[in-house]
Structure formats: C-alpha cells, structure tokens
Specification:
Elements: H1 8-12, H2 18-31, E1 36-39, H3 41-53, H4 55-60, H5 70-86, H6 88-104, H7 107-119, H8 126-133, H9 138-145, H10 154-168, E2 173-177, H11 181-184, H12 187-195, E3 200-203, E4 209-212, E5 216-221, H13 228-247, H14 257-261, E6 269-272, H15 278-285, H16 290-300
Parallel strand pairs: 1-6, 2-5
Antiparallel strand pairs: 3-4
Length: 301
C-alpha cells in the first residue's frame, strides 16, 4: 500500500527504507538551497531565563548584557555547569519556577521564583542568580509580568531560520507551512515582518544579520498532504532530530547519525546548543547588535 503522505518517523522504522531516505536527503541537499535548524530546548529555556529574569537588572544599571554574545556564553555555562554550581535539584526547580512565573504571572508564582533562586547555591554564580536571589530585582519581576513575555521557542526558531534564508536567497522567496496550530499562531507575525518596509539592518553574528525589507515576499498555509515541499521538509527535520537525539544518547535505532550529518555542507546546518568555547563564542558574535534588534522588534512588532 502506498502511503498518502511522507512521514519520516513512519518511513525510518523499516531498515530497508534507510538507504532510500539517505539518498533522498542527499539529492535535496545537493540540488536545492536547504537549511536545517536544531535547537536544544533546555538551553533555549536558560537563554529565556537570562533574557527576562536577569538582563533587566543589568539594563537598569546601564550595562549591555548582550554585548559580544555574552548571554550565550553565560547560558552555556549554566547549561553545562549550573547543576553542579547551583545544585542539581535546586537548579531544576529554579527553571521550573521560572516557567510557572512566566505562565501564571501571579504574586504567588513570582514569590516562588525568588524563593527557588535563594534555595540554590547562588553565590557560586551571582552574575546569573543574584538579581533574583539577592535583590528580588523589581525590574526583572516586572518584565516577567509583561503579557508579551512567554517561553515559547517558536519565535526564536523562526527568526533564526529567516535570517539564514535571507542570506541564502538570491531574490524574493515564499514560505509554505502546514496547518498545525503552532505555526498558524505565527502566521500574522511573519506577515508583519514581510510587510515591514523600513530600510534597516542589524548585525547578529559574523555570518548573519537581519535586514529589512525582507526578501521573503509571501507566506501560505497549506495542507501537508497536498504539498510535496512540506512533506520533504518533514523528512529532513525528522532525520536531523533523530540524529541529534542518537548522538546525545536519547534514542536508539534509526539511521546512522554520522551518515545523516555527513550529507550537510557547513552552511546547511545551524544549531542552538551550549558551547563552552567562550573565546570562539565571543569572536563569532563580536559586534552583535542584539540589544538594538530586541528594542526594534519591541517597538515595531
């Protein structure tokens, strides 16, 4: 029986499909402009914690928390060493309480967040935890209460992908996405980005920037069964996620992850994962205009 829709998970279960799946990915990556983005969700949560529960403390004191990507370095250090420095259960509870505070935005949830920060060994890493643990900084708590603040990863992922696609595209292009509720929620946001016609550019890293107006010219929601492009995208990202999980020891079986990753050219695979090569992080993000971009988005979108 022929399947009505290509789905990587269903196809990868059969060992006999593996050579054909690898061949399909090779053809796509060789003959088309492609980019795959893999994100460590825990690392992204820590970045969001720094954005909303730490950065306002430094901003109030006139310090650029995002200069040269130092927020990424701090998040990497917290991701790798936070459980040891702050205490494993206490650090996990801090992140959990942060999620709850962002979600519920009540005095009780904010008090629980501050208490969780104070329950860590916060003096081992005061740069990241003291704003809450020592000062219960009102500017941080006020930021968390902002209705627009959440821990949804989708906007970060979408903006990163668009930045990369803008660099790859020679001219106007369009986005097609499936009918999932998650993507539908950002349809209007993406349309606002498309409609923004002010001529301005912000540097992010040595290889990426955000420049308006975008080359992205249109966005359409489609039925995945009727869109070969959406189905092929499912195969590509399914294989990448499976490979990442296998390399991290979180999953067994499936296609050899090294065989999958070897298909990608350097500019076809981007990721948001912790890195403790702090000098390289600083060099890569030196001159970043992250603060200006954040303020621009807050004002315009």
């Amino acid at each position: 029986m022929r399947a009505s829709e290509l789905k990587y998970r269903a196809l990868s279960r059969r060992l006999s499909n593996h050579p054909r799946l690898l061949s399909l990915q090779r053809d796509i990556l060789t003959h088309h402009k492609c980019v795959t983005y893999v994100c460590d969700k825990r690392y992204l949560l820590i970045l969001m914690f720094l954005d909303h529960a730490v950065e306002p403390f430094y901003y109030k004191r006139g310090m650029d928390f995002y200069a040269d990507g130092q927020n990424y370095s701090m998040a990497s250090l917290l991701s790798v060493a936070g459980p040891i420095m702050l205490g494993q259960p206490a650090f996990d509870r801090l992140l959990s309480c942060f999620q709850q505070a962002v979600r519920y935005k009540t005095p009780r949830s904010l008090n629980a967040l501050v208490a969780a920060a104070r329950a860590t060994k916060w003096d081992a890493f005061p740069e990241a935890v003291a704003p809450l643990a020592q000062f219960a900084a009102p500017e941080c708590l006020s930021e968390i209460l902002n209705p627009g603040v959440n821990t949804d990863a989708a906007p970060v992922v979408l903006q990163s992908l668009i930045s990369r696609m803008e660099a790859m595209a020679d001219g106007p292009y369009r986005i097609e996405h499936d009918q999932s509720k998650n993507l539908l929620a950002y349809h209007d946001f993406l349309q606002r980005l498309i409609d923004h016609d002010q001529d301005i550019e912000f540097r992010q890293t040595e290889i990426t920037s955000v420049k308006f107006p975008l080359k992205l010219s249109a966005i359409a929601q489609v039925e995945s069964k009727a869109s070969p492009a959406v189905q092929l995208a499912d195969v590509m990202i399914g294989a990448a996620i499976e490979a990442a999980n296998k390399l991290a020891g979180l999953r067994s079986g499936g296609i050899d992850p090294e065989a999958v990753l070897s298909l990608y050219a350097e500019n076809q695979f981007i990721h948001l994962i912790p890195s403790t090569d702090f000098e390289e992080q600083k060099r890569f993000r030196q001159g970043s205009q992250a603060t200006a971009l954040i303020e621009y988005y807050a004002d315009k979108f």
